[in-house]
Amino acid sequence: MDGRDGQLRRTVKLATIAGFASVLAACGGGAETPAAEAPPPAVEAAPVRAASVGTLITATGALARQREAQLSFRVPGVITELTVDEGDTVRAGQIIARLDPTAVEAGRQRAQVELDRARRDLERDQALFDKGFVSRQRIDDRKSALAAAEAAYASAAFDRRWATLTAPAAGVVLSRTAAAGQVVQPGQAVVTVADAGSPFVLRAPVPDRQAGRISAGAAAQVRVGDQTLPGRVILIGGESGRGTGAVDVEIEIAAAPGLRSGQVATAEITAAAASSTTAGFSRIPAEAIQEAQNGRAYVLRLEGDVARRTQVAFGGFDGDDALVSGLAPEARVITAGGGFIGDGDRVQVVDPAALVAQARRAKAEGAAR
After folding, report:
1. In angstroms, rounded to a whole number, what is the distance separating the alpha carbons of residues 17 and 30?
2. Banded model confidence at residue 11, pLDDT cuts 50, 70, 90
3. What count of other Cβ atoms lies within 10 Å of the Cβ of residue 61?
4. Residues 75/302, Cβ–Cβ less than 8 Å
5. 281 neighbors 319 (Cβ within 8 angstroms)
């Protein structure tokens, strides 16, 4: 885990908890209430977890249909017909675009003429060969010329068929990058069509050091807008991107209404532990570590509502967790708000979300008076 990121997260949480403590004090009563003992500092806490529990790797990417096709012409030409636009639904085999057939038809006709000539030449020389007037080599040459002419004609006929684009499957047009009257080159994308029968997948880059801990079939939770959908990893890229060091991971997600290609989604992927050296260690959030040096660290362990500064063996960081030993399985440690807590101080464990709701209610009641 990046040390600066962890420090920033701890600093933000300290400020948040301090603000929540002020809210609790303000909600306790008005100025006319007699002075009372200040409430204990508010903190957040988390339980100790087994080290064997898989960690979560977060990745963000865009949704897409698993089968999406960029349709293009095989030959250059001028588009004379383009019948779809972005968002249109298409049926399998529907004509999407056509090229001006003049050039490709002329090429097919030239190939037909050369094929007919090669056949005539072979027939004429074969008759002469049968009478002993031409050599075997000449017949072999005529046969080779005929084979070449047949191949050229097949290629020209193939080009003629590809002067028309049709939908490969029923689906929806995701994009259109050309227009009628435009000159296009071979392989230039004209439209992109998504197969409506294929599932949605999330394609997201994952740092290569984390991708090695993800296996095909791993479970994932994918957040899309206000939906959280189950998913599973179906593909892990074979190489990392140049300059990014990221590996593309593909996650198939459950069908749900309202999903569209191009939507941004975030996945939490269950991954294996970073190493096999976790025997004897437990997991706690990295924010719980106060000091760490030479294999030792300190945490604030909760003993009821009292904080106890506790030394633990430190096995390093694994993602957003710290590996430690020396804590009971049922122990809880302070993860935020412990910067001003000493050994033996009383604290109150708070839920930040509940405090925010309480502060909003107090503010609304004050405005209503």
Report:
1. 22
2. very low
3. 20
4. no
5. no
Amino acid at 35: A
- Residue 76 three-state SS: coil
3-state DSSP percent of the chain in helix, strand and coil, to 5: 30, 35, 35
C-alpha separations of 130 from 67, 116, 124, 134, 136 in Å: 58, 21, 10, 8, 10
Strand pairing partners for 270?
56
Q: Residue 116 in 3-state DSSP?
A: helix
The whole-angstrom separation of Cα 8 and Cα 181 is 56
Q: Mean pLDDT lowest for which of 59-73, 124-138, 265-279?
A: 265-279
Q: How far apart are CA 214 and CA 271, in angstroms?
A: 5
* CB 41, CB 349: distance < 8 Å: no
Q: Are 338 and 350 in contact (CB under 8 A)?
A: no
Q: Cα angle vertex 266, ends 264, 267, to 5°? A: 140
Residue 173 CB: number of other CB atoms within 10 A?
19
**Among 259, 274, 282, CA closest to 329:** 282
Residues 6 or more apart in contact with residue 109 via CB below 8 angstroms: none
Q: Count of H helices and E strands in the chain?
A: 5, 23
pLDDT at 228 over 60: yes
Return the structure tokens found at 10.
């701890």
Q: What is the C-alpha to C-alpha distance for residues 102 and 78, in angstroms, rounded to an integer?
A: 10
Q: What mean pLDDT is predicted for residues 309-331?
A: 86
pLDDT on residue 244: 75
C-alpha to C-alpha distance for 277 and 22, rounded to whole angstroms: 43
DSSP alpha helices (H): ranges in 49-101? none
Q: For residue 63, what are the contacts with CB-CB under 8 A and spacing of at least 6?
A: 200, 201, 202, 224, 253, 259, 260, 261, 262, 263, 264, 265
Scan for tokens 């009563």, then name that residue: 29
